[in-house]
Structure formats: structure tokens, C-alpha cells
Design goal:
With 731 residues, this protein is an alpha+beta fold. It folds into four domains: 269 residues, 7-stranded beta/alpha barrel (Alpha-Beta Barrel); 141 residues, no CATH class; 35 residues, no CATH class; 213 residues, Beta-galactosidase, Chain A, domain 5, CATH 2.70.98. Helices cover 32% and strands 28% of the residues. The strands form four sheets. Strands 15, 16, 17, 18, 19, 20, 21, 22, 23, 24, 25 and 26 form a twelve-stranded antiparallel β-sheet that branches. Strands 1, 2, 3, 8 and 9 form a five-stranded parallel β-sheet that branches. The longest helix is centred in the middle third of the chain and has 21 residues. The radius of gyration is 28 Å and the shape is globular.
Length: 731
């Protein structure tokens, strides 16, 4: 019997830039290697394989034997290698020049590595906007895969989703396959018979169809419970056997073969979107709840099945409004990209091509998508992934400064709209540090980059409501709640698991950004226990707007920010001046001057700092006091009195940060922990360490009071370690 239906199995294997080496290795052992071993036993079953560049570079380095096996399967026609943007960025997050550049760079890398032609690509997270079509075709790609959800939103019904369509932008034609959402939920979670019968029904009704399964390779071993289910329980063998036994009517094939032998279904323009779950995650918690209520209440309404195709969730780019921290990374990335583009069109391109090439690679790595959004998968809540983005962006920025000729000590201060809020921010930059201040938002220090270790000390994340927090609360109210799935394989979207007990007790939300130079006027006598929960604020400086002037010279720069505001019923003036000296380039000087203070009124003033990327729960990350004595780990509560210094050490980073105060006072510290959802379930994640020097004072007769704070960083330990490692490498 001739082929009545084609099935394409397209796997997407990905690990984000900055993920732990152990996670890469576990995924390799649990998913990538065993799947390939099974595939080798079924030579008549081809697969389209996409591997993200961040994962592929790791595989080349750690498991070259895997690369050899992929190359052999490709040579015999069993694997079709599909490309995409090199480091898996969301296309909507990067400029058009970088979309084309990343796709071209990865195609070249794949073709050289596997000695094959790359014709198709994977769209990261299937986030789509119609203008991407011309960028993709310009980069030399013929076809791609999106979800059938995109096509249903364009007005097609399920019976029209068994092939591929032509789409166009600026006269460039791209072929797009709809990936089956139903198959994403049956493979590998239901018996293979369910998938075969679904395909049989389509083949009987629409002979000549093409059906595409496109989903994460990690669901074949890495997702909770899937390793024992897929391999130990034999699901994969039953599935491949079923495909083999039905090969008289069911042809398993590749995207390339389908394009070459099947005509398109027609032409279509797809609305902006992503996969269905992503459009829900981008909504605010209240809108997510409303969305879920509507879908639940009408699930059994016959008319709903017709109406639901016209119902859409949110727009992906709104992750940057939902999470300002994502926008901060995005804005920083745009600055680096624009500077690279500017230098690439200047004489620097001929003078320093190697530096620009290295900067471009670092930029591309800093565009990896996972840190820019959050859902059951997105990594915004994972500090090590955000830190990785900043690490590569800072490294790219430093390389561009070197390419520009800034090799000796230098210092600048500038004002511009750096975070895309239509207000001007202040950027203080040197050969050692980069600091960003937001005068229109409390005068906060919101980014603090240390070039020597490529670390943003303010890659923080606020605690904010998430819809799934209701599940956490419900679990806390029901002590007999089943917090595990007993090892069975379930979709990530249906997973309910808790990595630590009593997470409901840690739910807390921040009323202001957890940045630095956050100015507090507390109730007199406020305690640390209340302050750590955001209580006791009686001033309006935390998010107030400051008037700003800047001063610059070759040796010293400063930003002077002034605000008249309320402290209780009193109007006072606060001026904070942030300066950097070229000759003391790792010490940020912060001078606070309070004026018009009320006479004989107790004043409790504090300045909040947050230190991010310095891990908690480790013996080599700890506080020390003014005498150099080691205190607790960085997640511990500290209440120091009558002191003028506190330090934080991260031996793994080789970083020593300290706050020195010109006037002794109290210092509070506490951890900022989020409760978030990941592939493994719900967990508490340490985001930053809050440090709040505070003073309880009575103003002198002239109503003035001042304090200078020196924020210093020392990375000599990290630099010494680099020298030792370099010496070992040379020897």
C-alpha cells in the first residue's frame, strides 16, 4: 500500500547558556545519548534534530563521540540537522541584524561540523512575528516549524493543519509546518497506540497529509519520571515498533523530504504569538486566573470548541513589562549590539577584527532566551542564568572598549535613556566598573558591573505575585497535600511537586525594586524583623523623582541627585552624590546629605543595598565585620550595632565587597528569596542579600546631617586564580 501520511519527528535539544555543567551532563546521560542509541537500532526511522548552539558547543567539548555518532547518522540520511539562531535567542528580543547574523553563523557552524546542508530551522520557543519571515529567508533558511496554535489563531481548523504553508514578508517566501499540539501531549505520555490511531484517522480522511511532532528532546528522559517511563518502561521501543509495523501506510520522514515531495497547502500570514502555554504565562496573575476560569467554565460547551480558536492569551514582548529585570537585560543587550554595529561600520573593523569577532560571540551568547522570561520552563528566576547573560554582555562591552582604543585607565559619565522608559538615566563607566543610576526611580543604583570578573552585582529579582502561588498556599493549608507525582511521567505543565517544605511561609512580595541606594525613612524604633517584610516606611523617597546634575573631569565624575520630599508630616531635602575617582576605580563614593530636618524629632534613616550573584548556603560565602571577623553565611540575618563596616565574601567568585560608613550605625542584613516554578517543581531561590545600614538620629540645630558610604569591590583573589590557572596551562 502506498504512503497515505507522512510523520515528521523533530526534536529540539537545548541547554541554556550558563546552566550548570552537571545539568548538561545529566541531560546527556538521561536524554540525548540514550535516544541516539535507540535511534541507531531503527535505521528506517529518520528524525529531524535541532541542537542549540550552547548545548552543541558543550557536546563538542565534553562528548565528541556523540558528535561522531550524529555525523554518521546524518551521512546515512537518518538525521536531518536543522539550524536556527546560534545561542537560542527569542527572535523578538534581538535586533534584525542579530537575527540574521545568529542564523547565518549557526548554519555555517553546523554545515562544517556535520558535513551536511542545513535548510530548516527551529524558532526558539516558537515565538513568532510576521516580519521574522524575511529575516529567516535572508539568512538562507527555507522552512521552519511553529505550533498549530499559530495556525488556528489565523483562522484555520484542525482539518487544515496536515501539511505546510507558504508565508511571506517583503517578498521573501518561507515554508512553515504546523507542529501538532495533540502529539506534544501524547508523545511520550500516552500509549503509542493513541498516537497511531490519531494518525490513522488523519490518513483515512486526508490521504497525503504531513503531520509534525516538534518538541523538546528532554521529554525523552530528563523531564521528571520520563527516563524510567521512556527507556526503563520500554515506551520508546513500543513507539518505534509501532511506527515500523505500520510503515505500509505511515511514512516517518524528514522536513526536507516532505518539502521536496509534497506541495504546500496554500499561503498564510500568521498572527504574532507563541505556543499556547507561553501566551498564558506572559499574562499578569489576575488575567491568567481569568483566562483559566473561562477555559474551565466553558470546557464542555459545544460552542466553545468553535470560539476557542479566536481566543488568545498575551503577547510575548510583554514579559519585559511584567518583569522589569528582563527589560534591564534587554536594554543592556541593545546597547552592546548597537555599539558593535557602530564599530563594525568604522575603521575599527579593519584594525581590530579579532576583538569585534569575540565581542559578537559574547553578545550572541548574552542573547540566549531563557533568562528573559518565566513560565514552567523560562529561567528568569534562576540567578545563574541571569548572571550568565550579564557575564557575556559585560565581556562583550569590555572587548568593544578595547577595540575602541580604551586600554589605559579611563573614566566617563553620560546621561541617556538607557532602560527605555522615556526618562534619562546616568551611566558612570571606567576601565574597571560600570554603574547605572535611575534618578526618576528613587535615584537607585540599578546595575553595577565589575569588569574584571564580568559580574553585575545588581542582577537582582523582585518577589512578586505569580498565579501558581495559589497552589503553594493551598499546599500549606492542607498538610496532607500530595506534593509528589510518585515518579510517573507527566507533562511539565501538569507537574505539582515541591522541592522544599513550608514554601507557603516564604511567600512575600516587594513594594520597591531590590536595588541599591534605596533611601528609607523608617518608623523610629523599627526592628529588623518588620523591616525585612517591607514594613515601617514613612518617607516618599524610595521611588521618588530626583533632580540631577552631573560633573565630569578626566580624574573624577559624579552625579548629584536632589529631592524635596516627605518624611512623615515633615518636608525635607535629600541629596545623594555618587562619584567615581579614576585613581580609586573600584570604590564608589556615595554621599548623603539631609537638610531641613525637624528639630527634636527622632529620625530613622536607612540606605538599602542588594548584592546579587553571591550565593547563599555555602561556607565559602559569608559576611565579615569591621574587625575582619567572619560572621554567618550570606543568607543569614545580621543585626550589627555601632559599626562602620560590613563586608561580603564570595570565594568562588573571588569577590570581596564592603560598605564603609563615615558615621557608625546599625547594619541589617536579610535574604531575598523567591518562590518560583521550574521543570522540577516549586522551589525557594536565593536572589540577593539585602544590606541596610541605618541610623537613628536627632537632627542638630541647623537641621543638617550627612554620611558618606564607600562601596568597594576587590577581585584580587579572582585575578590571582586566573594567573595560577594560566601558569598551569602554559606548563
Amino acid at each position: 500500500m502506498s504512503c497515505r501520511i507522512r510523520l515528521v519527528l523533530a526534536l529540539h535539544d537545548h541547554q541554556p547558556v550558563g546552566n550548570f555543567d552537571g545539568v548538561f551532563e545529566a541531560s546527556f546521560q538521561d536524554s540525548y545519548a540514550p535516544f541516539l542509541e535507540v535511534l541507531e537500532k531503527y535505521p528506517e526511522i529518520p528524525v529531524a534534530l535541532h541542537t542549540s548552539g550552547s548545548l552543541l558547543e558543550w557536546l563538542v567539548d565534553k562528548h565528541p563521540e556523540y558528535i561522531d555518532r550524529v555525523r554518521q547518522l546524518t551521512a546515512r540520511g537518518q538525521l536531518e540537522i536543522i539550524g536556527g539562531p546560534f545561542y537560542e535567542p527569542i527572535l523578538a528580543t534581538i535586533p534584525r541584524r542579530d537575527r540574521v547574523g545568529q542564523i547565518l553563523a549557526y548554519t555555517q557552524y553546523l554545515e562544517q561540523l556535520f558535513q551536511t546542508q542545513v535548510r530548516g530551522m527551529w524558532v526558539p520557543e516558537r515565538v513568532w512575528e510576521q516580519s521574522f519571515a524575511s529575516d529567516i529567508v535572508k539568512a538562507g533558511i527555507e522552512y521552519t516549524i511553529l505550533d498549530d496554535y499559530h495556525f488556528r489563531n489565523a483562522g484555520l481548523n484542525n482539518d487544515q493543519l496536515h501539511g505546510y504553508y507558504l508565508s511571506e514578508d517583503e517578498g521573501r517566501l518561507l515554508k512553515i509546518f504546523p507542529g501538532s499540539e495533540r502529539l506534544r501531549y501524547t508523545i511520550p505520555f500516552q500509549d503509542p497506540h493513541e498516537t497511531i490511531e490519531h494518525l490513522r484517522d488523519i490518513a483515512n480522511r486526508f490521504p497525503g497529509s504531513v503531520v509534525v511532532f516538534g518538541d523538546d528532546g528532554e521529554k525523552f528522559g530528563t523531564w521528571p519520571g520520563t527516563k524510567s517511563h521512556v527507556y526503563g518502561g520500554g515506551w520508546i521501543y513500543r513507539f518505534f515498533d509501532a511506527l515500523r509495523h505500520n510503515s505500509d501506510w505511515l511514512k516517518v520522514t524528514t522536513l526536507a523530504e516532505a518539502v521536496d515531495n509534497v506541495s504546500p497547502q496554500g499561503s498564510i500570514y500568521l498572527p504574532d504569538g507563541s505556543y499556547r502555554e507561553m501566551t498564558e504565562w506572559v499574562l499578569t496573575p489576575d488575567k491568567q486566573s481569568e483566562y483559566h476560569r473561562l477555559t474551565h467554565d466553558h470546557a464542555h460547551d459545544p460552542a466553545w470548541q468553535s470560539a476557542v480558536q479566536f481566543m488568545r492569551g498575551g503577547f510575548w514582548r510583554n514579559f519585559r513589562t511584567k518583569y522589569p529585570e528582563s527589560n534591564e537585560m534587554y536594554a543592556r543587550m541593545l546597547q552592546v549590539s548597537a555599539r558593535l554595529d557602530e564599530l563594525s561600520r568604522s575603521a575599527v573593523a579593519q584594525e581590530s577584527p579579532d576583538l569585534l569577532a569575540r565581542a559578537r560571540t559574547e553578545l550572541y551568547r548574552g542573547q540566549c532566551n531563557c533568562s528573559y522570561w518565566h513560565g514552567a520552563f523560562g529561567g528568569l528566576y534562576l540567578p545563574h542564568l541571569r548572571n550568565a547573560v550579564y557575564r557575556h554582555l559585560i565581556q562583550a562591552d569590555t572587548l568593544l572598549e578595547k577595540a575602541s582604543g580604551n586600554n589605559s585607565p579611563w573614566l566617563t559619565i553620560d546621561a541617556d535613556d538607557y532602560n527605555l522608559d522615556a526618562r534619562k538615566e546616568i551611566k558612570i563607566a571606567s576601565d574597571r566598573l560600570v554603574a547605572y543610576l535611575a534618578p526618576s526611580r528613587g535615584g537607585h543604583l540599578y546595575e553595577f558591573d565589575i569588569r574584571s570578573i564580568n559580574h553585575n552585582l545588581l542582577a537582582t529579582l523582585n518577589r512578586r505575585p505569580e498565579m501558581y502561588h495559589e497552589k503553594v498556599r493551598a499546599a500549606g493549608q492542607n498538610q496532607h497535600h500530595d506534593q509528589h507525582n510518585h515518579g510517573q511521567a507527566v507533562s511539565i505543565h501538569d507537574l505539582v511537586a515541591f522541592k522544599q517544605p513550608d514554601l507557603h511561609k516564604k511567600l512575600q512580595y516587594d513594594p520597591w525594586p531590590r536595588k541599591s541606594c534605596v533611601d528609607h525613612f523608617f518608623e523610629p524604633g523599627l526592628t529588623l524583623d518588620r523591616a525585612r517584610y517591607g514594613e515601617g516606611e514613612i518617607g516618599d523617597f524610595v521611588l521618588g523623582v530626583f533632580e540631577t546634575t552631573i560633573r565630569r573631569s578626566p580624574e573624577f565624575v559624579q552625579a548629584k541627585m536632589t529631592r524635596r520630599g516627605k518624611f512623615g508630616h515633615h518636608e525635607i531635602q535629600l541629596t545623594k552624590t555618587v562619584g567615581l575617582d579614576r585613581d580609586h576605580g573600584t570604590d564608589l563614593e556615595i554621599l548623603y546629605e539631609l537638610e531641613n530636618l525637624p528639630h527634636n524629632v527622632p529620625i530613622h534613616f536607612g540606605v538599602e543595598f542588594n548584592f546579587a550573584g553571591m550565593a547563599a548556603g555555602a561556607s565559602d560565602r559569608y559576611f565579615y565585620d569591621a574587625r575582619g571577623r567572619q560572621l554567618g553565611q550570606l543568607q543569614t540575618l545580621q543585626h550589627l550595632t555601632d559599626t562602620d563596616r560590613i563586608g561580603l565574601i564570595d570565594e568562588w567568585l573571588g569577590l570581596d565587597c564592603a560598605l564603609d560608613l563615615s558615621q557608625s550605625g546599625s547594619i541589617w542584613t536579610f535574604p531575598v528569596e523567591t518562590i518560583s516554578q521550574s521543570e522540577g517543581g516549586f522551589e525557594a531561590v536565593h536572589q540577593s542579600t539585602a544590606v541596610i545600614p541605618n541610623w537613628q538620629i536627632i537632627a542638630p540645630a541647623d537641621g543638617r546631617w550627612a554620611v558618606k558610604i564607600i562601596l568597594s569591590v576587590d577581585t584580587s583573589a579572582a585575578q590571582a586564580r586566573k594567573l595560577r590557572e594560566a601558569a598551569v596551562t602554559v606548563s
